[in-house]
């Protein structure tokens, strides 16, 4: 198909028909075959030979993960984008935004080639960008991810995947439709402790699984040190507040609403339940082998909501996700932190950096070659870059992330309507409860559309 | 008691019919004291950053209401949105609660604000979440008269609700001169999906700049 053996115009025409990504893949293969040629001869460090990336949302996670990507020599960050030029309100009221991010990139590369944008649409319109990182507040994930997928960009999208179940479905469909690579920022999937715990469960080391407990944090911690700043205030210079609101309902500006504390308002996020819903419940589904489906009911819902003038997410919560095989997954801020799998023959617990089991025998149990081995990734960023080159699925693909965060969204829906709900994981609808089913999606403020 | 409830419902319907016919009005005309324990003035004068305790109380009532209580709460909240003194933030909250109550009798009062520049978005916010064919009809009707951002908002809601009765109107917009509206309409046709939507997409003669949007809509429509 690609018979470009002569240089010149003919070759240029063929190159136009090849995607930049397939070129990179072929280059990588050729590079492996000709490894004895020093890279300086081939110019492997030239920016044109690298995967070009843009960072959209350079507040908290965006800035943190930018440093990770800057360490990968296969990637070149060419653009950063944030509605905030530079300002406070992030972790511990630190200063962040697109200008600090641009300076970070330029400092890392020792030049001034990184472009800074206010509007993500300008970034996505650039044909020379292969991949984007999405680190915006949650209410922007859906629109940006879908636009980026439609523009054939590979995407590293932060958790929680979506603001609503309908958004997640649309995002997953767009990624699939456009055949782009997606990595969710649920980096616990690249932590060997969680993988090991899930492999022990999947291979029956704790007998028949009956209960899973996910212990998540509660409250609405004042990460940005801005929770007291609830009075309507002038919009800071350099901050495009209307664009920050995006598809969310119109609301007056105050510092408590934006920055890292956005997470405690249901217009922009789902509180601790969704913040951590992309982590521990995701691991639970990995161990339960229910990654592509979900529960059929949410039961025994209990919770309390914040009474802060701006914050309204759940501060305390307990609910049970019931699966067709009878397994019960408990999600609560009152459970032991991490994920505990309980079976007829023992238990396994995992959290960041460690895992434990009910017996030494289970802890030391070897997973044989003919048993179930789960996807192995030891570094989430490396895995994403590897997959952009190989065009293989990442360790945290979007459909799995969608199904995981659905558990959190369903919990929030049940808490908000104050009753048990029945769920159809095939149609992705709440059964016989129109008021609860209405919360599966969220209206968008004009001119935005899902 | 069984005999009283239907009469009570009829009384409510009559009240609402009167209320809907001349929106907006003042609180006294729609009987805001119909829900004991809730002070309408708290909502009428509410602004964000104020203490939310009375709003939390209303939200808790919405969460735990029986069907009969829902109807009465809806009447109370309709009164709030129809009161010309109600602040934007009070209106915003009332719309959010009406969205949760899902009462048919709130559809017409909410629809009365669909062409109000300041309040259209929140009225639509509430309506989009009420699962009733009457909402579909209201949105299609509103789309035919709308311009600018409001038009885009209605297309968004129609797309989200997959209102197939809107296909002819969307088709017309998709072929129109307003590129942003055409883009949204094409997207909506794709999201609604099905044979009718695909036929409508076949007939779209949009500018080349929307080719990718159209292709994407086809893929969505035929999934």
Average pLDDT over all residues of chain A: 91
Helix proportion of chain B? 55-70%
Total count of helical runs of at least 4 residues of chain A: 16
User: Widest sheet of chain A: strand order?
Assistant: 13-12-11-7-10-9-8-14-15
Look at the helices and sheets of chain B and give the structural class. Answer: mainly alpha
Distance between the termini of chain B: 52 Å
Radius of gyration of chain A: 23 Å
Proportion of residues in helical segments of chain A: 25-40%
| Poorly predicted runs of 5 or more residues of chain A | 1-19, 29-42
Total number of β-strand segments of chain A? 15
How would you describe this protein?
The complex is a heterodimer of chains A (about 450) and B (about 220). Chain A is of the alpha/beta class and about 450 residues long. Chain A has 16 helices and 15 strands. In chain A, about 35% of the residues lie in helices and about 20% in strands. In chain A, a hairpin with a 2-residue loop joins strand 11 and strand 12. In chain A, helix 8 runs antiparallel to helix 15. Chain B is an all-alpha fold and about 220 residues long. Chain B is built from 13 helices and no strands. Chain B has helices at about 5-20, 40-45, 55-65, 65-80, 90-100, 105-110, 120-130, 135-145, 150-160, 165-175, 180-190, 195-200, 210-220. In chain B, helix 11 (about 180-190) packs parallel to helix 13. Chain B starts with a helix and ends with a helix. Mean pLDDT of chain B is about 85; it is low at about 1-5 and about 10-35. Chains A and B meet through helix 8 and helix 16 of A and helix 3, helix 5, helix 7, helix 9 and helix 11 of B.
């Amino acid at each position: 198909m690609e018979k470009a053996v002569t240089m010149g115009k003919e070759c240029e025409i063929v190159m136009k028909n090849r995607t930049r990504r397939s070129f990179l893949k072929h280059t990588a293969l050729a590079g492996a075959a000709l490894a004895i040629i020093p890279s300086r001869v081939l110019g492997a460090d030239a920016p044109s030979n690298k995967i070009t990336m843009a960072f959209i949302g350079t507040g908290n996670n965006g800035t943190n993960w930018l440093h990770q990507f800057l360490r990968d020599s296969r990637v070149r960050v060419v653009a950063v984008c944030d509605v905030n030029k530079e300002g406070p309100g992030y972790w511990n009221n630190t200063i962040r935004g697109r200008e600090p991010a641009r300076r970070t990139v330029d400092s890392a590369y020792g030049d001034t080639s990184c472009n800074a944008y206010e509007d993500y649409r300008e970034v996505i319109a650039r044909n020379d960008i292969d991949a984007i990182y999405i680190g915006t507040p949650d209410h922007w994930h859906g629109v940006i991810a879908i636009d980026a997928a439609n523009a054939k960009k590979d995407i590293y999208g932060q958790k929680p995947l979506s603001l609503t179940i309908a958004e997640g479905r649309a995002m997953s469909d767009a990624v699939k439709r456009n055949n782009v690579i997606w990595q969710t920022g649920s980096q616990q999937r690249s932590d060997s402790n969680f993988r090991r715990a899930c492999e022990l469960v999947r291979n029956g080391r704790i007998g028949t699984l009956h209960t899973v407990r996910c212990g998540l944090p509660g409250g609405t911690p004042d990460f940005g040190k801005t929770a007291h700043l609830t009075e309507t205030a002038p919009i800071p210079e350099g901050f495009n507040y209307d664009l920050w609101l995006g598809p969310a309902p119109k609301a007056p500006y105050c510092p408590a609403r934006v920055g890292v504390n956005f997470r405690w308002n249901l217009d922009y996020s789902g509180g601790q339940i969704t913040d951590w819903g992309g982590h521990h419940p995701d691991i639970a589904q990995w161990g339960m082998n229910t990654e592509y489906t979900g529960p059929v009911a949410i039961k025994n819902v209990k919770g309390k909501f914040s009474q802060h003038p701006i914050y309204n997410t759940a501060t305390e919560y307990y609910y049970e996700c019931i699966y067709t095989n009878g397994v019960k997954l408990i999600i609560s801020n009152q459970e032991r932190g991490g994920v505990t799998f309980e079976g007829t023959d023992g238990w396994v617990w995992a959290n960041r950096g460690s895992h434990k089991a009910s017996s030494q025998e289970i802890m030391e149990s070897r997973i044989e070659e003919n048993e179930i081995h789960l996807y192995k990734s030891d570094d989430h960023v490396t895995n994403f870059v590897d997959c952009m080159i190989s065009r293989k699925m990442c360790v945290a693909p979007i459909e799995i992330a969608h199904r995981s965060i659905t558990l959190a969204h369903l919990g929030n829906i049940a808490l908000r309507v104050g009753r048990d709900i029945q769920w159809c994981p095939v149609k992705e609808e709440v059964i016989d409860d129109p008021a609860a089913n209405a919360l599966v999606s969220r209206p968008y403020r004009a001119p935005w559309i899902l | 008691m069984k005999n009283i409830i239907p009469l009570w419902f009829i009384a409510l319907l009559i009240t609402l019919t009167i209320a809907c016919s001349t929106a907006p009005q003042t609180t006294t005309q729609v009987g805001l004291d119909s829900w004991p324990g809730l002070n309408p003035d708290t909502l009428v004068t509410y602004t964000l950053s104020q203490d939310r305790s009375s709003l939390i109380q209303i939200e808790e009532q919405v969460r735990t209401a029986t069907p009969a209580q829902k109807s009465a709460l809806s009447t109370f909240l309709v009164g709030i949105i129809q009161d010309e003194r109600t602040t934007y933030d009070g209106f915003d909250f009332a719309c959010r609660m009406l969205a949760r109550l899902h009462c048919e009798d709130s559809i017409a009062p909410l629809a009365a604000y669909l062409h109000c520049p300041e309040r259209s978005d929140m009225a639509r916010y509430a309506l989009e979440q009420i699962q009733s064919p009457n909402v579909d009809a209201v949105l299609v009707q509103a789309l035919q008269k709308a311009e600018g951002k409001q038009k885009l908002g209605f297309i968004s809601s129609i797309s989200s609700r997959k209102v197939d009765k809107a296909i002819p109107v969307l088709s017309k917009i998709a072929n129109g001169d307003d590129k942003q509206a055409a883009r949204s309409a094409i997207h909506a046709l794709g999201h609604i999906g099905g044979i009718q939507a695909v036929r409508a997409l076949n007939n779209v003669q949009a500018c080349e700049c929307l080719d990718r949007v159209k292709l994407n809509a086809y893929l969505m429509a035929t999934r």
